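can u do me a favor
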């Protein structure tokens, strides 16, 4: 893999020149503090502040998970996690549990609510706690779409760099996913208010048992029942969110406990976004514009768009289209990296991510 300067698409990362030359940080070195906060609409959230063996030498970075998972997603049982890499590079690390987190009480959320209420509150909390006046963000999947909505609306002026994985302003999905979210999801919403990949291990009632049976019949590629349910819920691949070749056995087993409820309110909004070809607000939150693509984003922050070439949840064209949109409005400011051999979550969870994907993200954060 090779890298690229900002403003030009790339297929891979460059080596990180800023890594500390001491013993690498591991999970046993983490000092973890969970700090409660409230979203601007009063919804309880948490920020997980992680420190390592040394005080940070750089500013704060907030890391945001996707739908139906949690902040712990970035600390899998790998010898070296993404959090370890951030700590060793000197960052002050904050992991956000926004309203889509399975560590919080489940609610029927929308991307609008996360954009207008969760992310501004989290950024303000981190800045107040650290005394910094600026911060950087690494955002994934629906944490990325909602965070990008907030950025485009001008709600996060203190954020100067955003590393976005998988999707940001322009969701593009495989044809089968278009069918599932446009036809199956409305039918499913009539009988259940949410979907949960955790049903693979712990079905809840007749509806979930029928779904698990159907998924078992159509996804014979894996013995992990949650992995199979993840593919049904989030994409069109076998599996959808990673390549089995990219996950070690410990991470593949651990992932069974990292997925739970996703409300059908989200799928309804994402279906409208996919049909429109770009993010579409529900119109229920006044702080957001009627369109996110009618004009340039209301931010001076630099966007680093990352896409796994093999992503079967959101196709790499998702990030390419957003990059083209940004280039039309502010050429040369932002960058795009398409990673061969990677899909959706294995960008962070892959067995070789520590040497193949983390260095790219660290390099872009430090640029």
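np, heres the sequence
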């Amino acid at each position: 893999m090779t890298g690229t300067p900002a403003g030009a698409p790339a297929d891979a990362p460059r080596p990180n020149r800023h890594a500390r030359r001491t013993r690498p940080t591991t999970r046993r070195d983490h000092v973890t503090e969970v700090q409660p906060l409230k979203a601007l609409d009063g919804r309880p959230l948490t920020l997980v502040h992680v420190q390592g063996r040394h005080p940070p030498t750089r500013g704060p970075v907030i890391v945001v998970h996707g739908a139906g998972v949690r902040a712990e997603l970035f600390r899998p049982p790998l010898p070296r996690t993404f959090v370890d890499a951030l700590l060793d590079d000197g960052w002050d690390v904050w992991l956000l549990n926004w309203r889509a987190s399975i560590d919080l009480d489940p609610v029927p959320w929308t991307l609008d609510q996360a954009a207008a209420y969760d992310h501004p509150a989290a950024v303000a909390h981190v800045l107040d706690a650290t005394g910094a006046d600026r911060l950087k963000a690494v955002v994934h999947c629906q944490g990325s779409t909602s965070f990008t909505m907030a950025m485009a609306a001008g709600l996060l002026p203190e954020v100067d760099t955003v590393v976005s994985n998988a999707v940001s302003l322009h969701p593009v999905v495989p044809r089968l996913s278009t069918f599932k979210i446009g036809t199956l999801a409305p039918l499913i919403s009539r009988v259940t208010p949410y979907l949960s990949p955790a049903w693979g291990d712990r079905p809840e009632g007749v509806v979930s048992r029928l779904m698990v049976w159907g998924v078992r019949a159509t996804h014979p590629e894996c013995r992990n029942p949650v992995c199979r349910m993840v593919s049904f819920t989030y994409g069109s691949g076998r599996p959808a969110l990673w390549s089995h070749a990219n996950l070690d056995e410990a991470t593949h087993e651990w992932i069974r406990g990292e997925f739970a409820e996703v409300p059908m309110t989200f799928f309804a909004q994402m279906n409208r976004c996919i049909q429109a070809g770009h993010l579409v607000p529900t119109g229920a939150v006044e702080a957001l514009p009627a369109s996110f693509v009618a004009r340039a984003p209301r931010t001076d922050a630099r966007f680093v768009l990352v896409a796994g070439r093999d992503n079967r949840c959101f196709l790499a064209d998702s990030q390419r289209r957003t990059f083209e949109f940004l280039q039309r409005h502010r050429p040369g400011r932002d960058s795009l990296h398409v990673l061969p051999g990677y899909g959706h979550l294995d960008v962070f969870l892959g067995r070789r991510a520590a040497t193949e994907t983390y260095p790219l993200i660290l390099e872009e954060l430090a640029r």
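The radius of gyration is 19 Å. hope that helps!!
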